[in-house]
Specification:
The protein has a single domain (about 1-95, about 150-260), classed as 3-Layer(aba) Sandwich (Rossmann fold), CATH 3.40.50.300. The longest helix is centred in the C-terminal third of the chain and has 18 residues, at about 180-200. It is α/β, with parallel strands linked by helices. The chain has helices spanning about 45-55, 75-80, 100-105, 120-135, 150-165, 180-200, 210-215, 235, 240-250, 260; strands at about 1-10, 20-30, 35-40, 60-65, 70, 80-85, 170-175, 200-205, 220-225, 225-230. Helices cover about 35% and strands about 25% of the residues.
């Protein structure tokens, strides 16, 4: 479903601020893979997601989604393949619009525009049923402005919106980092349910090693723009945080950063 072939990306090339963010990175995801991505600050995790999403072009290499080469496609043309949830709960939804209006925008993405914009009864019923699955009581608040909701509720709605059209690939960029632990746990449960139900191929960046181990069928560790560790299946299930810290030290040659220890 996703094939990345030796992509590289350098920011501010030829200047004192030059930063090589990705270095000949290759990665293949099969349909239905749920891959968690960890690494220290500056490892290239978000750069990888932005490269796949088309936020910027890569210097070399290629990116294919479900067999389609999207390397040269701008971000808006890749949108039909992708669902994405950002770290900031304020992104991904329109704060001044109601819950059902936000869902309608996501549901109509990529479809032909007509003068008939109104949300009809069968569509409203479908939204209510999907919101009920979140178990947040939002199915009775369809007309409530999204800007009045909590961060966790907004992230849950953004998740639902990102999956409405069953994207080829779901990108989760530290989507629980700005939430308190209890709310983060709830949003991760919702994430797991949606990904499993729709068999969505998913890339999830996290700084939390426990989350990286607990969720998904595969884990990759990044360092200096490259993948230095890739584990899946039963081997992943047996991992503990101490194992990951040891692997990071062994494979990167660096001592573990304070950020990773705190995670």
């Amino acid at each position: 479903m996703l094939e990345i072939k030796e992509i590289s990306k350098t920011f501010n090339a030829g200047t004192i601020n030059e930063k090589k963010a990705l270095s000949k990175l290759s990665l293949t995801l099969n349909e239905g893979d749920f891959v968690t991505v960890i690494g220290g600050n500056g490892a290239g995790k978000s750069t990888l997601l932005n490269a796949v999403a088309g936020a910027f072009g890569v210097d070399e290499g290629s990116i294919l989604i479900d067999g389609t080469d999207v390397t040269k496609l701008p971000e808006y043309k890749r949108a039909k393949f992708l669902g994405r949830v950002f770290q900031d709960p304020m992104n991904g939804t329109a704060a001044t619009m109601g819950i059902e209006e936000n869902l309608a925008l996501a549901y109509r993405r990529g479809k032909a525009r007509t003068l008939r914009w109104g949300i009809r009864a069968p569509e409203r019923k479908m939204y209510a049923e999907k919101l009920k699955e979140l178990d947040l009581g939002l199915e009775t608040r369809l007309t409530s402005k999204v800007g009045l909701l909590s961060g966790g509720q907004r992230q849950a709605i953004t998740l639902l919106m990102s999956a409405l059209q069953r994207p080829k690939l779901l990108l989760l960029d530290e989507h629980t980092a700005a939430l308190d632990p209890k709310t983060a746990h709830k949003v991760l449960e919702i994430t797991q349910n949606i990904v499993t139900r729709d068999r969505l191929t998913t890339l999830m960046i996290t700084h939390n090693m426990n989350h990286a181990i607990a969720y998904g069928n595969r884990l990759i560790m990044m360092h200096n723009g490259q993948i230095i560790f890739d584990v899946s299946g039963e081997e992943k299930q047996k991992l503990k945080v101490e194992n990951l810290l040891q692997k990071f030290t062994e494979l990167s040659g660096d001592t573990v950063s304070d950020r990773m220890l705190l995670s």
